Amino acid sequence: MNKKDIFLVSAFRENSVWKQILGICSSLAVTNLMMNSLIMGLGVIFALALSNMTISLIRSYTPRSIRMMVQTLIIASYVIIVDIFLKANLPVVSKQLGPYVGLIITNCILMGRAEAFAAKNTPIDSFIDGIGAGVGYTLVLLAISFVRELFGFGTLFGFGIFGAWWTKWSIMVMAPSAFFILAMLIWIINNRYYKMKG
Amino acid sequence: MSKEKTGFRDSNIYPVLFMLGMSLLFIGILATVYRSFEQKIINNETQAYQKQLLSLFIDKIAESDPGVKIDLNNDLQANYQKYVKSIDLSYAGRYGYSIIVNNQIIGYCFDIMGNGLWGSMRMLIAVTPDMNTIINIDVYKQMETPGLGARVTESWFKDQFKDKLLFGTSGILDYSLIPEDQTADSGTQIRQITGASITSNAVLKMIKTEMSQIKETLQLQVK
């Protein structure tokens, strides 16, 4: 597989959210505003790409019996770096995202990519795979938050789209709306995918 | 040589040493990253705190000093230094501030703490100079359940304490909770947060115990 294929497979064909149903918790939690989703996505891309690369770099030295502990340690370290960076440079966003940045550590996508890809492939390939999986995750977050922010607040990235006449749908601001939107998104994509296959 | 190496890798001590080494390495990296951003994080937190404190008094300051328009986003530091002075409470972990406009104290603000459902809560409470009436409150640190107890930070809940009498003739008043969908009278009733009676009670308890303690401390200091 060449580098482009690695990216395309992990971002789209084997997308972590819509194909593997991983990382659902945070997809529901931080998608009420597009800005939050974007920053969360960038945090995941950073942590995922670098942790994948680091895990791959030390893969031949890591004892099998403790590999998951080592992976968690590496993932947690990168996530804490993201958290510190946000607290220092984007305190408002950091407060809005609250505990969810720290919870990237428990995001199954990171552990999944570490086990499924980084532990068996070269550092560069793992880095690209991490970027791909992160981009795939970010796209899903942005798609959900697009609908939620537009109907829930009448804005996109904070810019007013609908005027004052718009009645805000409070269901869109609350977490349950993400359930419906994510389900519909998975349904549409799977439907198209299977149709194409057929 | 290679045989020896494989032998060591197969030994029981290798995973322990490997994990120890990795832990030390990553702790070192994290410590360095944190150190380099530490001052910036502290500055951000101080600014957010000062902004919250001043915003509790923004109407009172405008009343006492007409013509002054406070912009909390631009001149935060200058305004904070101009109006706010720390007072010594000699009371573990609690802070007090007096708000002074034109050499006159227009109110006090106390940084008090108490236990919520999941962890400690910290709150700023602004009171009039005689300490008998609450001007405003703001819960600035809490670990309550999002969507339930965490609603203590919502304005409908905080605004209920505006202009509430805190001390009556016979000491501190007891506030009572009523269901969220009812209308509170102007006396001691507070609408509680539905599904979070422990948090609602914790706020009332915190105000009661901390404020009576603070008033006592300050009165002793005056004597």
Short description:
The complex is a heterodimer of chains A (about 200) and B (about 220). In chain A, about 70% of the residues lie in helices and about 0% in strands.
The number of distinct β-strands of chain A equals 2
The dominant shape of chain B is globular
pLDDT < 50 stretches of chain A: none
Rg estimate of chain A, integer Å: 18 Å
Question: Which two chains have the most extensive interface, and how many residues on each?
Answer: A-B, 20 and 19 residues
Distance between the termini of chain B: 82 Å
Helix content of chain A: over 70%
Strand residue content of chain A: under 5%
Distance between the termini of chain A: 25 Å
Chain-averaged pLDDT of chain B: 87
Sheet with the most strands: spatial strand order of chain A = 1-2
What composes the largest sheet of chain B? 5 strands, antiparallel
Count of folded domains of chain B: 2
The low-pLDDT segments of chain B are none
- Name the average pLDDT of chain A: 88
What count of domains describes the coordinates of chain A? 1
Query: What is the H/E string of chain B?
Result: HHHEEEEEHEEEEH
Order of helices and strands of chain A: HHHHHHHEEHH
Strand content of chain B is 15-25%
Q: In which order are the strands of the major sheet of chain B placed?
A: 1-2-3-4-5
